[in-house]
Structure prediction request, 105 residues.
Amino acid sequence: MDISSFYNLSSGAVKEAAERYAQEQDALSTGEFGSLFDKAIANLNTTNAYLSNAENEKIRWALGETENTHQLTNALQKASTALQYTVTVRDKLLEAYKEILQMQI
Prediction:
């Protein structure tokens, strides 16, 4: 998938994701599995941080410590998107693993 057009966007998050994708493709092409694995762990940690932040925002809102629903909604959306991404990557990895297992040598 060509994502070169995303580099021209002004959103910092999109630029960061596009650069991360390019780095992952470079790691794959050079056979650096360790680097790819480290990035996968970092992405899991990021997802966990987003989920934790969303939970903290929900608690703060429920206790009345904040009335800013924008922060709550933002945290919940980030957590949801990160979790969907992580689950999709996991599903694709399991699909690839099953396909490798079914290969006949």
